[in-house]
Amino acid sequence: xxxxxxxxVVGVLLFGLAFVLSSSIRSRMNVQKxxxxxxxxxxxxxxxxxxxxxxxxxxxxxxxxxxxxxxxVEGKTIFVGEPAISQSQTEAKVLSxxxxxxxxxxxxxxxxxxxxxxxxxxxxxxxxxxxxxxxxEKASKQKSPDRLKMxxxxxxxxxxxxxxxxxxxxxxEGEILKLQKKIDASQ
Length: 187
Known about the structure:
- The chain has helices at 2-29, 60-67, 87-93, 97-139, 145-186, and strands spanning 33-39, 45-52, 55-57, 71-74, 77-80.
- The chain is an alpha+beta fold.
- It folds into two domains: 33-83, no CATH class; 89-186.
- It has a three-stranded antiparallel β-sheet with strand order 1-2-3. Strands 4-5 form a two-stranded antiparallel sheet.
């Protein structure tokens, strides 16, 4: 019985010693673990962060989104916010109200030109179909002069529409050149 009691006492001492030593080692290593909430001033939850080994880890993307700053990652470097702009770059970016209006007008005219070009291609496709129908009609045994006249009128109408669109493109290109000259002269 003495041996049994001695074994119990030794076991309790070892268990207690292990618990004390582990907490002292943990405090020396400053190991901390935990999760915390990141909130905006209005109280809305942004995300959760973590404390591991005494270091706070915050989710950078969530933080950048919360403050409204752009975030870019290049290799192992994370950039939050706008890149630094030198004074000469700032001066170059400052445009007069007139120049901005001219630039906006140029962009609008380029959009008009693109639309016209798309419409021209669509009409050309329709005309190809009409030409094929005219060939079919001429080769047909049951020729219908009214249908043939109608198809030819559609082709003529499509040609007129294409010519109008090409005039619009030419006018827009001329206006773009004038505006570009004004912009170049103002700088």
